[in-house]
Amino acid sequence: MPGAARLDGHYSQPCFQLGKIYWDKKDYKIAAGWLARVAPSTPHYLEAQFFLGLCRYNTGDFAEAEKSFQIVVASMPLNEVFNDLGAAQSRLKEPDASDSFRKAIDGDSADPDYHFNLGYALWRAGNFTAAIESLRAAVARNPNDAEATTLLGRALRQQAPRPGDPKSESRERLKLNYDEAAYRQLQAELGK
Q: What is the 3-state secondary structure of the chain?
């Protein structure tokens, strides 16, 4: 497969497949190189952008991760993409992170990670009252979530994040699934 991609750099299918192979191996930099070569006119483009965003996120390039996720949500407003967009925005300390997490919750209010991420972003912003509400929702959906319980306690005590504290930084939770087919099926059933 690498030979086909080298012979014709515009042939997106092997680029996509190689990107996914390196993604599975957690070799994010190489995976990103292949995924970035998937052409916008191909069926796997949005999925490639989703995984490209995850690769960029995992290599610390949050601004480029945000761009990849924004490309996807513009055409495919999936909950998991809004969540990961919010995570990238949160790392960039952008206020839009909370809005992205809310959109993920609007699409699937049963997912505890979406509530955790919103609560975490609100807590970091010092909005303890709203953070408490979201973190309580996360704990209600997953009572065994020790991290959410701890963060809820800190929000209740109105303890702000401490710079450099590993328990306070980089706690966003990513979604690694991409299910465009289910979205398209739902759209077809709704007649849109």
A: CHHHHHHCCCCHHHHHHHHHHHHHCCCHHHHHHHHCCCCCCCCCHHHHHHHHHHHHHHCCCHHHHHHHHHHHHHHCCCHHHHHHHHHHHHHCCCCHHHHHHHHHHHHCCCCHHHHHHHHHHHHHCCCHHHHHHHHHHHHHHCCCCHHHHHHHHHHHCCCCCCCCCCCCCCCCCCCCCCCHHHHHHHHHHHCC
What CATH number should be reported for the domain holding residue 179? 1.25.40.10
Which pTM value belongs to this model? 0.90
Same structural domain, 176 and 92 = yes
Q: Which domain holds residue 68?
A: 1-76
Same domain, 99 and 185: yes
Residue 3 neighbours by CB distance under 10 Å: 7
Residues 149, 101: one domain? yes
Model pLDDT for residues 34-68, shown as the tens digit of each residue: 999 999 999 999 999 999 999 999 999 999 999 99
Structure tokens at 60: 């610390």
**Spatial distance between the Cα atoms of 103 and 86, rounded to a whole number of angstroms:** 9
